[in-house]
Give the backbone structure.
Amino acid sequence: MKYIILLFLTCLSLCLSQALLAQTASSDPPAEAALVPSEPPAPPSNVRVSDLANDDGHGIRVTWDLSPDDGAGRSSVISYDIYRTLNPNDPDSLWKKVGTVVLGVRTYADRGEREPGSGSYLPKHTNLYYRVYAVGAGVRSAVATAGPAQATDDWFNTMKVPELIFCLVFLVLTVRFINMAKKGIDLYVRPLAGIEAIDEAIGRATEMGKPILYVLGIGTAGDIATIASFTVLGRVARKVAEYQTSMIVPCCDPVVMTIAQETVKTGYADAGRPDAYKEDSVYYVTSQQFPFVAAVNGTILREKPATNIYLGYFAAESLLLAETGVLAGSIQIAGTDQVSQLPFFVVACDYTLLGEELYAASAYLGREPLLLGTLKAQDYLKAIVLVCMVALLALRMITGADVISKPFDAPWW
């Protein structure tokens, strides 16, 4: 009996479905179809064209007043199409579509390429004409032509005024502090624990009669971290010569090796012991990363240096070097500007120079006026930037005005 009832209900549902479909097909179109405009939307008005400011002469700004049909609750405008031509009176002159913006937007920056052969080339010092169409559902409005306008070069980008101000302030501070250093005025530099420990580490190596290993990293002679390491290498070489301790400097780059040889030789000469310099103490290994690390690790395990100094550009080999040094029982001093490698040095080395402390080390050790003046100027400029940030943030919290980003978004004049 239950199967008969189930069959009856199934047939009843099928009949009802067919009736509903037939009624839907014979009824009027859905209400959404009535929203499709039968006429094009009203065109935008007051179309204006002008040279795009702060560019290289290949840009035009187009502005207009929104179409009357572009409004909340009654908008039949989908987007605005922008067209450009060189001569609107010539029937053979084609109108080229250069861009599209969504409803509610009333400006467009037509930027082109410099090369004449480019598909988006926009000539400068040439009359250009524009049209803006309000586009509806499959139709668009008509609009009058606006122009002419010419794209011209700008000698100065007013959006870069903040950068100019900070550069001038930094220049003034740098010149002032360099002159102060040249006059012998003592400029305070925060002591760096890693640099302070170098003399102690060299003394420990001397007492133990073991060598000092100095690794400049795997960077080239053009890397800033390597350049900063050369200054520290000169100081270490001078101290090594004074304490009459041996030194090992393996290099991953032949140019770095040449500079390191001259730096170490100069350090020995400054210490008054040029005859103690050994040419084979600074040598080239290989330019390949992990073969270089394998060779240096072998040197550490064989020679058992009392002190390992890793200063320069390091990558994935940082932890391999540091762990091998720990196994050899060496005092380790490391420093690099590669943020991703600093955690490995911090956990495996006794002292670590973090980031720009490596750059400050060259000024701290060398005490040269040029380096000291630049370092002090950087510190003061950072303090000025921090004060400005705090002041602007407090002003925004008090007034509610967007005083942080708006001054940099608008031209400064």
About this structure: Confidence is low (pLDDT under 50) at residues 23-37. The domain at 45-149 is CATH 2.60.40.10 (Immunoglobulin-like). The radius of gyration is 36 Å. Residues 369-399 form the longest helix (31 residues).
